[in-house]
Amino acid sequence: MKIGIIGSGNVAYHLVKMLKETQAVQLYSRNAENGLQVAENFSISFENDSQNLIENNDLIILAVSDDAIEKIAQEIDFADTIITHTSGIKSMHLLKSTSSNYGSFYPLQTFTKNRAVDYQTVPFLIDANNEQTRNTLTNLAKKISSKVSHVQDEKRSRLHLAAVLVNNFSNHLFALAQDYCTENKLDFDLIRPLILETAQKVMTQNPSEIQTGPAKRNDKKTIEQHLSWIEDENLTELYQLFTKSIQQKNR
Amino acid sequence: MKIGIIGSGNVAYHLVKMLKETQAVQLYSRNAENGLQVAENFSISFENDSQNLIENNDLIILAVSDDAIEKIAQEIDFADTIITHTSGIKSMHLLKSTSSNYGSFYPLQTFTKNRAVDYQTVPFLIDANNEQTRNTLTNLAKKISSKVSHVQDEKRSRLHLAAVLVNNFSNHLFALAQDYCTENKLDFDLIRPLILETAQKVMTQNPSEIQTGPAKRNDKKTIEQHLSWIEDENLTELYQLFTKSIQQKNR
Description:
Two copies of one chain form a homodimer.
Chain A: E1 2-6, H1 10-19, E2 24-28, H2 32-41, E3 45-46, H3 50-56, E4 59-62, H4 66-75, E5 82-85, E6 102-107, E7 124-128, H5 131-142, E8 148-150, H6 153-183, H7 192-204, H8 220-229, H9 233-250
């Protein structure tokens, strides 16, 4: 199957890397400079004309930012070519007007250029407006990963919220912890192994069953001591709110 | 060197496991049943009498809960025997009245019985009331880990706050995400690989430099959509506060 990828960001970069081993892959990007760079990096062909991309390929993957999906869908006519986006939150039905075969092809993972990911372990969430398209997308995902599931449009969007909690929010907690360390001349590297082990534990255990800490055991003295050390107002509020939430969940 | 460990919890369990390869280790616990179980598990001797433990050993490690440290220090006379606790937050000076040689021996990691940890990568934070004791504790820690540092008493307590943020609070975020998944009949296993990759990224990158998500790009539509799906009041407040904090940090 010949696959056209639109985009040049982190997801487009990794999709090219995932797919080029087993498929013919072409790339198109409105940002031609970035697009060319990705194409050259993986020695695949860069297509300057979006209409050519559609005519030359059986399936188009729209690996662009959430905001760009609707715009591109309106600008480009995909006719019968299978078109899918890679968004966590956006409905696949945004693509309804642009092709009779559309779907969603969502790799539920965080991607950065130049950082290797074990694709076999990446959950792919697939849906489509008809069974044939869904099968095509599912079979494609199975060439990349062993964790492919059919997840309906709205369920995928709802899962995206959980992804925001465990990725965006926990990463921000790490950032606040690093700021606090810097302000107090503490070495954040001493904290890093704990971040990894905390995550590794959750691979095999349920987080609610392994909760520990001053909030859990209602250690008021430590909680007060901690709060006296925090200068960032948002972190103070977060500390209080986490303490309340942990206590209510565990009482 | 002969080492006596007091305690039978997760830290005591792992200290026995860490130390018994290279040292003579004895265990004492006020909870004799649990203590015996740990001792039998690692084929070391269990000592019923705390005074015998002190007389038989060169160094006593108090691997007990924070609240128990002061109590045990008051009840037992350690004379000149080196005594150290393993607490993140408590001052080593709680041990001042009980021995002329005291310190802190803090493995900055989360431990669970029966879960293997690569001890070589565990940061050990060491301090003591005199140089000789500090050297003894440092040399002992170096037999276990390659990451041993002298971190002064108050600095260690302050670091413990950062540990609470990245361990207790991120684990609670994971627990809330799992609750949300359960309520919405979503498969939390689809989220687990993202938790691990988020942590792994922070091993080599600074979290503030890799922040992404709707809050970071001020995607109001997604933020509103997410908030409409959350039913837990504390999670609603946390979502709003994280969004505000991320936006203020990244503007």
